Hints:
By secondary structure, the chain is mainly β.
Amino acid sequence: MGSMRQLITPAAILTALLVPATAPAAKPWVAAETVSRAPGLPSVAIGPSGRAVVAWTANNAAYGSRRTSSRGFGEPFALFKQRRAVSDATVAFDASGNALFGFRRLLERNHRIASSTLRPDGRRVGTISLSGPGSSAYDPAFAAPAAGTLAARPTLIWSRRNNPAGLPPTRVQLARAVNGRLLASENDTIASAFDARYAQASDGTVVGATTTRNSIVVAVRAPGFTFARTQTLDAGVGRFREPDVSVGADGTVAVVWRHFTGSTYRLFASVLAPGGTFSAPVAVSATGERAIKPRVVVTSRGAVRIAYLSTPPGNDRGSQAGRLRLVSLDGPGATVTAGSQRAIEFGFNGDGRGGVTLAWTRRTGNSFGGAIYARAVTSSGRLGTRQRLTRRGETARGIDLAVGARGDAVVAWRTADLRRVRAARRPAS
């Protein structure tokens, strides 16, 4: 491993991250409801007034449904339809309450990114194209804002395949919202576009974390500039994979990634405290496990929380299901799943009171679906009650989680029989 690595967190970082606080306990989840009978992998977001929107694609179309704070999800509405494939819907709210949708559409020989807007009063703005011909667009996703906040101008980012055979793609495009609409995109490059995650600071700066075969790299893009500012956090022998990044409201930046250390994949983290520099990499998983699917959240009170699935040690030929673990850089970790329960996927987000919420799909037998559970974690790190969200006998695959500033939350999923999109909500506390 690289000489910069440490197995304990530097005292200076602990001092910056330890913020004693209390917050109201999370309320129980309300019984799930059916959002649509046209199934697709969902994306969910919560707006400033507590309204939630779910987006998905099915039958060559992109759809949405809005939930008000007092009623259930309304009748699904079509954002866009065509005779060829439509996929990869994603949605985010801006601070003014506009719901911004992004999705891929197959046009001629390429997949292209398109967008639509749902205004706070329910009016829908027509679809516009954000990318053109030349190469297909992949994996549209919004840069994640700080926990408990909404970006004034959300940024949608996707990758473009334009690289020579055998080399990692480096080209990305970004579209920033203006007056509640995503407008013409800008071209940029990043070290490995297909293995990148993004977060957005309150001033619009986007931080990207990406891995190459032998390094973890952070790139910073201030509004009006490019990803020219880069920093290698670690490099060495062994594969680097699955980065994630989070930006706190106070300017804290946390990055996590997996590195194959010779016998197993271990999880490492580096933290940039406000006004400081990135710390030396810290090992946050044990040598006797393989860490997969890591996610990181800088809470609204500056603490760094890391979640991942823990599986038996080894390479990635092993199981993709494991115990859901939660690690804090300021204290011991905890297992979120119960007993021998294994999760195959999970969502992880923070609220505006220093807490975080996890939702996961429990693996049933050898299937790729199962029951969905959720659990809140207080600002002090105490685990709340585990609650099942799916009905008895209902299995799901493909979940998304959104958490609001006041502790309200929505989990959306596609049923494993591919017949419905369903969602459960937790009221604000």
